TrEMBL record:
UniProt xrefs under Pfam families: AbiTii
Identification of the protein by name: AbiTii domain-containing protein
Domain AbiTii: 5-179
Organism: Terrisporobacter muris
Classification via InterPro entries: AbiTii
Amino acid sequence: MARSKLIKDFISSNMDIDTALQNLMVILYCLDNERLVNWVSKELSGYDTDDELPEYRKLQGIVRASFIVGYVEYSKRQFGIAHLDEQMQENLLNTHIYSSISTLIEMKDKEVCIGKPIPPEFYGILQESTNAHITNASVDVDLGMVNDIISKVKTKILETLLFLEKEFGNLDDLDIDISIKTEEELKNIVQKIQVNLYDNSITIGDNNKIKSSNMITNK
């Protein structure tokens, strides 16, 4: 079977990631599964704070602070937090990335710093047991981590398209004939795509989760 042109265009960079996501959304609508379409929609438009966030968008940043020690000012230096308890460190450093994939690409290209400000009322706890007086602090995320999100989304798009092509044939009409599959086969197809899109975790029935499952495109 000849490879679908939309797949070839995507892997050869003749199709941007937003267009690839839009094409994938049209195809996934045929499977009538809201969770699959929702993943595409959220990557296109961005996530809300109460949305189910994929694991690859949950990052850990580092604390950077501007502070004064004696008469010397330091600007945007990494600031140690080993004196904080483990739970507080985790809550502080955990950084969820909600922006759309196109926004992340733009921020990466412009080398815009991504992170979250630390409220001034927290400075006292941060500088405890030090001789520093903090004037500004934030939790910053390395741009390499942002690039990793972009790469993962690209890979998930490609793997899903390849899997759909394997199951249903050429995708260039942005349509798939689900009548060639049984109900059980369609259920398994949907589950495998969910595993891929949501980082090896899918929700079935009464909120049980299947973890550590991998989507295999050549099986």
